[in-house]
Design a protein that fits this description.
Layout lengths: L7 E6 L2 E6 L9 H16 L5 E5 L4 E3 L4 H6 L3 H19 L5 E5 L2 E3 L1 H8 L2 E5 L3 E3 L13 H9 L1 H10 L3 E2 H7 L4 E3 L4 H13 L20 H18 L5 H11 L5 H16 L2 H15 L16 E5 L3 H12 L3 E5 L3 H14 L1 H5 L5 H11 E4 L10 E4 L5 H12 L7 E4 L6 H4 L9 E6 L8 E6 L5 H13 L3 E6 L6 H9 L2 H6 L4 H11 L5 H8 L1 H15 L7 H8 L12 E2 L6 E2 L1 H13 L9 H21 L6 H12 L8 H8 L1 H15 L7 H9 L8
The structure holds 1,4-dihydronicotinamide adenine dinucleotide.
């Protein structure tokens, strides 16, 4: 048989053809790989010397899914249908084919990869590898038989969980559920697969009996199926509102699991196509691809990042302790500096606490943590000890003089190549850098609270930040597994100002007589994790007030603090930390806080405003128009220029609903002329805060969108 294909290498051993897939980066099922796979299989079928086939991958991947960049290119439903049906039929032909296939699962076995493995007649998995159907995470469902084969192997309840949540399981769990026939150490994988092949050749294992389609004993009765799927629908509705795929997956299970698997797979493929052509899937696929590309900026293309071995953390408070967690997990040698021994002791307690979760989840033991701390972490109260670090991250008191004083000292202590990063939430970094001999070494690394959990890292370039500093900061962001989004210096940088834009419309609505509870509900319905009042209570009404004051001072008249914001601030109820803000937290459940409710009522009365009823869509329109306008102003001012990054920042930093694609994607879907007209109307009604940015006016006139047409 032919042994050399572009993406597959074939070796022969004792009547067995071993196919090794090598299709970087993740052994994805690209058109070329599928073509090679089909040709290799036919060649093996034709060769009478080949009695069985072992299928395996290279490096960390068996097959980690389909090639979604290809899917993006297919536009029409019929075309998706044709490609998907071809793939599904090919896997069915392997399952019902004349020779046994054994999957030797050496690494990630995801999506189409798991569907391929399930079409094989025997599965050996290496210890620790991931197996899963993560399609829902990009708005899809398995579309090559996954919904029909998985329940046959592991039963409907487990299959439902894997398919609707998209979370992979490890080899051992896969084995205990019946998805893998054996789990072996990685070094014994191929041997085990070859042994299994010999068991088929000797007749000990029967090809027909081992076809997944023949395994019916785990399928539920009709009554069980109805009960399970009804329950799954209710649960999914609570968890995945706004998404399509999990519901389509349930439909596929409901319409399938019958006697004619080929027909059932066709139904699955049709449901897959419904997902594939939906806006939700397009949004989620774009987010997935853009996340992979985050930080790949033309500005730093080809600029080698400096190697970071040793990093210093200044301040082990709320933020510092979370960042130390990241440094330790990232394998960096770490020095934690704080003002005195008491502060260090407190900081160490806080650092340890950040590991409670991984320890509880058995991802590590308390002993592992002790060892990590002992091997990687030293503490000090002397800045002189930072003389050989490659990176300093500062998260001390939010005060320009205090911060500048520390940086000035470090300028004379740290080596010239060391990057200086500040985690300030609002101070101008360009000004902070002025105390340095070389301001080019300073950059903002804005972490979000809790730093060790939130995925976003907002990287802020000051006026003089150098390209190598930026390149190093982006590489560091990736090394600690964050999504690095680069913006320029300005009040609130990007995320805080954008969030202000997204929720800032609420006060205008409230001052116009709209019920606050309706505004909260409209934004939660839209998909935000919480409404503007609940978020204010969480971050602190006083903090928000001061941020607003700073915006007013630095950005001008459009940002004038609304008189109702002053009124609420004057109540002295600052949110959760004072026990009450918009809501009162003294009881079991938060309820509207009478003091703030009364203050708002008085304001409305004094201004002769009567209650006003708006639909949730009208509320969302105002809030989103304001958000889009703020984004346009920031693009105009040069704070940021990459819509894909801006959208990712809001998704990862604030919980903006991913299925909506982001604020700018939403703007394009809504239609820029409509956004512009809405803003003109709002400006007339509520004043200059809603004055549309020139950029929007130009875009509306020229028919441009934020994202290029695809
Ligand atoms: P924190 O109050 O928990 O910690 C402050 C740290 O500064 C402590 O380690 C403390 O010992 C140290 N410190 C106190 N006085 C000092 C002085 N005179 N000189 C040097 N260090 C001193 O504060 P947190 O929340 O960790 O904030 C730290 C920085 O991170 C601030 O710049 C803040 O704006 C920023 N930030 C905070 C976020 C948050 O949600 N808490 C989010 C993003 C940024």
């Amino acid at each position: 048989m032919k042994t050399d294909f572009q993406t597959i290498k074939v070796d022969r051993k004792d009547g067995v053809a071993v196919f090794t897939i090598n299709n970087p980066p993740v052994n994805q099922m690209s058109p070329q790989m599928m073509q090679d796979f089909a040709a290799a299989v036919s060649s093996a079928y034709e060769d009478s010397e080949v009695k069985a086939i072992v299928l395996t991958g290279t490096g960390k991947n068996f097959i980690a899914g389909a090639d979604i960049t290809q899917l993006k290119l297919v536009k029409r439903r019929e075309d998706v249908m044709e490609v998907a049906l071809r793939g599904a039929r090919f896997l069915s032909s392997l399952e019902t084919g004349p020779k046994p296939l054994i999957a030797a699962i050496n690494g990630n076995c995801l999506g189409g990869g798991l569907e391929t493995a399930m079409a094989c007649h025997y599965r050996v998995a290496a210890e620790g590898v991931n197996l899963g159907q993560p399609e829902v995470q990009i708005g899809l469902i398995p579309g090559a038989g996954g919904t029909q084969r998985l329940p046959r192997l592991i039963g409907l309840p487990n299959a439902l969980e894997m398919i609707t949540a998209g979370k992979p399981i490890k080899a051992r769990q896969a084995w205990s559920r019946g998805l893998a026939d054996e789990v072996v150490p990685m070094e014994g994988l191929l041997d085990a697969a070859l042994k299994a092949a010999q068991r088929f050749i000797s007749g000990e294992l029967n090809l027909r009996m081992r076809m997944t389609r023949s395994v019916n004993h785990r399928l539920p009765s009709a009554a069980e199926k109805t009960a399970l799927l009804n329950y799954a629908r209710v649960m999914t509705f609570q968890k995945a509102k706004g998404y399509i795929a999990p519901f389509k997956a349930i439909d596929a299970l409901e319409q399938g699991l019958g006697f004619d698997i080929d027909k059932d797979i066709e139904k699955e493929v049709a449901l897959f196509c419904d997902c594939a052509v939906s806006d939700v899937a397009k949004n989620l696929i774009n987010i997935f691809l853009n996340t992979r590309a985050a930080g790949n900026l033309p500005r730093i293309a080809g600029i080698q990042p400096a190697k970071i071995k040793k990093a210093a953390m200044l301040g082990g408070g709320v933020m510092g302790s979370g960042i130390v967690h990241l440094l330790l997990q990232g394998g960096f040698e770490t020095i934690l500096w704080d003002i005195n021994d008491g502060a260090i002791q407190k900081a160490m307690g806080a650092v340890r606490k950040t590991f409670d979760y991984p320890i509880k989840k058995k991802k590590m033991t308390a002993a592992d943590l002790d060892q990590k701390i002992q091997q990687q972490l030293t503490t000090t109260t002397s800045l002189d000890d930072l003389k050989d670090v490659d990176l300093v991250i500062e998260a001390i008191l939010e005060n320009m003089e205090v911060k500048q004083d520390v940086w000035k000292q470090l300028d004379g202590i740290c080596p010239a190549h060391a990057v200086f990063a500040t985690n300030t939430s609002a101070l101008p970094i360009t000004e902070m850098a002025e105390v340095l001999k070389d301001p080019g070494r300073m950059i903002g690394l804005h972490f979000f609270n809790p730093a060790h959990r939130m995925q976003l890292l907002e990287i802020i370039c000051a006026k003089k930040t150098s390209d190598p500093t930026l390149s190093t900061a982006v590489a560091f962001g990736r090394a600690i597994k964050k999504v690095p989004i680069v913006v320029n210096d300005g009040p609130g940088f990007y995320v805080s100002r954008q969030l202000g834009g997204l929720f800032g419309g609420a006060v205008y609505l409230t001052a116009d007589g709209v019920d606050g509870a309706e505004i909260e509900a409209a934004m939660v319905d839209f998909g935000m994790p919480m409404g503007p009042a609940a978020l204010s209570d969480l971050t602190g009404i006083d903090i928000n007030y001061h941020v607003n004051k700073t915006f007013e001072k630095r950005l001008g008249e459009r940002y004038k603090v609304h008189p109702l914001t002053e009124t609420v601030y004057q109540t002295g109820c600052y949110g959760r930390k004072t026990g009450a803000g918009y809501f009162d937290y003294s009881g079991e459940k938060p309820v509207p806080n009478k003091k703030v409710v009364d203050a708002i009522a008085r304001y409305l009365e004094e201004n002769h405003i009567s209650p006003k009823k708006l639909s949730r869509q009208e509320i969302v329109d105002l809030m989103l128009a304001n958000a889009i306008n703020e984004a346009a102003y920031m693009i105009q001012e040069g704070i940021c220029d990459r819509p894909q990054d801006m959208d990712l920042a809001m998704i990862y930093g604030t919980g903006f609903p991913p299925y909506r694609g982001g604020i700018l994607r939403y703007a394009d879907t809504w239609g820029i002329p409509k956004v512009y007209e809405t803003l003109l109307k709002l400006e007339k009604q509520y004043g200059s805060r809603f004055r549309p940015a020139n950029l929007l006016k130009e875009m509306a006139a020229s028919g441009k969108t934020f994202y290029p047409e695809e």
